[in-house]
Amino acid sequence: MEPSLDVALNNLSNGRDRDRDREELSASPQLGDQPSSNGPEFSLPPADGGKDAWLFLAACFVVEALVWGFAFSFGVFQEYYSTHEPFSSEASRIAVIGTTANGVMYMLGVILFPAYKKWPRLANLSKWAGIPVIAIALIAGSFANKVSHLILTQGALYGVGGSMVYCPTLVFLDEWFIRRKGLAFGVMWAGSGVAGVTIPFVLNFLLENYGFRTTLRTWTIAVTFISFPLIYFLRPRLPISPVSRPSRYGFRFLRTSTFWLLQIGLIIESLGYFIPSIYLPTCARSLGLSTSTGTLLVALINGAAVFSTIIMGMLIDRFHVTTVILLSTVGAAISIFLFWGLSTALPLLCIFSVLYGFFAGGFVSTNAGIIKLVKQRDESADVGMLIGLLSAGRGIGAVLSGPLSEALLNERPWQGKAGLGYGSGYGGLIVFTGVTAVLGSVSFLGKRLGWM
Question: Which of 40, 136, 266, 342 is most open to solvent, judged by the fewest CB atoms within 10 Å of its CB?
Fold first, then answer.
């Protein structure tokens, strides 16, 4: 059975006229064949294999790892900023930095994907601008003296640059891989998971030994010198149209309860999704554990997510998307209430990190099933626009989770009144994360009630 990602993303809008592409393909030799002496002078590089396709995918993996791996490792910065000057006096606002970076990277897709469709050359231009924007953001952040400076630089501006690099890869990957699209997306997304296991330790070493200013500048140099040469290989396979094309979308799906139940569930789940990876290092420190232990917990979450994205994607092929959503959210909720809530030592925190990373980390794979289901309800819906809207929903949840989580942490409900993890001062965060995980499965209830 073909992966659901193949079905859902096979028609990803990329700003080309598909009829024109088919005419060019039919006029060219078969993919992978060499043109004959009397054949056409131009032929497209082969899809699903060949040197150019694999170089493109390798570049996607590395860029994904560096851009998203850094953002997913913010918990290491959270612990450092909250215990070191000049930011420790503003500890209640630090989480907003990380959630802003993730949120902006997700939300900009709803703007960039339609723009790429209308102006086909824009995707190929924005990929070059993304890394310099990231570099400017991190260098500027290294001069910060207030948390608000970091929110604007390491948060918002970094998210803008990351989105400018990341979104074109989704557009171009759809051209390079057709039959092996599921494999290609899996390899690319594995980059952030693999990086999420290693980067936290690198950042922790740099922060502990050299401070945040040198760390941000060092990471800027690393990202620039590693990523920038690879940007060349993040190029389209199909010829770019020299003229802009009107964007035509079908929006009937916005009038369906199916889309809104799935979107609302996604936003609610995202409100709590980022909290454990941000706060586990500081939670571990409150239990008397070392900084490196907190780094280990973040790495365990990211590592478990590598496997879950693949497994949840396979389940999407066999079961209704709301069933997989229920599995992801209920599994995450159980790990939160049972293992994080009852933890007072490292073993339970490690078990929680692995289980939460597996169940919650696989939620992103349900996007393919959501797109497939919405397209069944409204065939005129543009897949690129759907990806943008779903990403925006996740971004909204990410941005809001920062101030919400900080408010809960400042209140510290049940501290000294409840036992185990619930009475540690993080009880409000634990319950909030668990409740949002459960409510993220609202679409399953909607299906059972006949609303979908």
Answer: 40
